[in-house]
Amino acid sequence: MLFSCRKNTSTPQNCNLITLSDSTTSVQAVTQFTYDNSNRITAIVVTGKYGCTRNIQYAGNTIIFTVTDTTPGIMNEIDTVVLNDAGLIQTQVSHFPSSGTSSVETYFYDSPGTAAATSSTETENGIPGDTIEYNIVNGDLIYDNVAGQTAHKDDFTYYPSEGIVFGDPTYFRQLYYSGSYYYINKHMLSVLYTAGVSYKAYSYSFSNNRIAQETLRLWTPASPDTVTHIISYSYSCK
What we know:
Elements lengths: L14 E8 L6 E7 L5 E7 L4 E8 L2 E8 L7 E7 L5 E8 L4 E9 L5 E8 L4 E11 L2 E7 L7 E10 L5 H10 L8 E8 L3 E10 L2 E10 L7 E11 L1
Antiparallel strand pairs: 1-2, 1-16, 2-3, 3-4, 4-5, 5-6, 6-7, 7-8, 8-9, 9-10, 10-11, 11-12, 12-13, 13-14, 14-15, 15-16
């Protein structure tokens, strides 16, 4: 699935993203967003092959969201995110009630306020997790890697002429899988390559400085053909 479910707190031009529709034959998924009066997302519902529901609550600089997943083999969870003074992730605790396990991610920032590294720990037994380091060049994340290793975990490429707009996949990748931002790029994502896992090439059409449609060409190991996802965006504007 191209997107899971997390939260977003702001949109430009007084517009909210209402739905994402994946028309790919193998997916046929729709993601719907509900907002409160402060334009904060309060619910995200994904219907289709990878269905899930996230209900989101806010208390000061803390975000709590409960996840109910209809995908077989995926455990439900309760995530708690604490933001720092800049509104970026400080810590994220992910708790899985069915197994009684939890994990903690802590983010560290350089002086401009972009994540320099993150580390994780399994709170059930205190085992240290990996520390991921981020390489930022001219405002864009170029690669990340596990601390102490030279191999890149992910490599990112951007369209040099396309400044970032709401809806860019790097934003959603963070919001859905981490709960909030820990880096913000200057340019639109073109390619995300995860060594040995996948190669994702993105292209876009735009309307009023917002993404109207996104096309994802995906390569995965042992897959003879390129898979294409076509994601249509719809907004509610005031």
